[in-house]
Amino acid sequence: MKFSRIYLNRLQNQPAVSGTAVVIDTLRSFTTAAVALSIGARAVYPVEGIAGAISLLGDLPGAVSIGAIGGGDPVEGFDFGNSPSQLQRADLRGKDVVMTTAAGVRGLQRFQRARRLYAASLVCARATAEAIRAEGADEVCFVITGEWVDRDGDEDVACADYIEALLTGQACDPACFEQRVRDSDFGRRFTAGTWPNLPLADLDLAAQADYFDFAMPVSRADDRLVIR
């Protein structure tokens, strides 16, 4: 199995990915998506841009909206911000979810032509590795979405390192990857307590390796990306 990595915000023209693409957003998009599915959401529709999300909401009666802009602030008028800990208290049973965020969702849209596509975060890392192994992937590309000019993105690099270690049969302690999420530039913003829309409870949840036992493959339905 061959591995490669792409840092979403480093490149203007990302190369094509012909094999399996694993788009990682640990803080917080794909931790939030995992929570939504765990509490009964029927599907999560990742849409790039607020206007596109609003348009899709009009086509999905009863759908719930989740949205955040760069830096993590919620989208005004949406049902929920990109906060997995707050979402845990919601009732999403049988509901569709439309999600737009600044990083993870954009990564899925950029690499939607990959042969296999996964949304991933540390909370479902082992399940993602097991799904990749089961599909018999030859090439796996990890898309790191959390690195920005003011963020090292190590929360996502740690997740990629953990999944790769699992796929190559290395003995590894999940605790060290969990600590890297906490110690990342963005992780420290949650612990600082000075960012009202970055609650510590989100970091505490996102830094739990293998909290969920399912992967999040991304498919197409009616020409839309959908996570189930």
What does this 3D model show about the protein?
The protein is of the alpha/beta class. The chain has one domain: Alpha-Beta Complex (putative 2-phosphosulfolactate phosphatase), CATH 3.90.1560.10. Helix content is 36%, strand content 20%. The chain is built from 9 helices and 9 strands. A 6-stranded mixed sheet has the order 1-7-2-6-8-9, with helices on both faces. The protein has a 3-stranded parallel sheet with strand order 3-5-4, sandwiched between helices. Helix 6 packs antiparallel against helix 7 (174-183). The model has no long low-confidence stretch (mean pLDDT 95).
Strand and helix layout:
Elements: E1 2-7, E2 20-24, H1 29-38, E3 43-46, H2 50-59, E4 64-67, H3 84-87, E5 96-100, H4 104-110, E6 116-120, H5 125-135, E7 139-144, H6 154-167, H7 174-183, H8 185-192, H9 200-206, E8 216-221, E9 224-227
Parallel strand pairs: 1-7, 2-6, 2-7, 3-5, 4-5
Antiparallel strand pairs: 6-8, 8-9
Helix pairs in contact: 5-6, 6-7
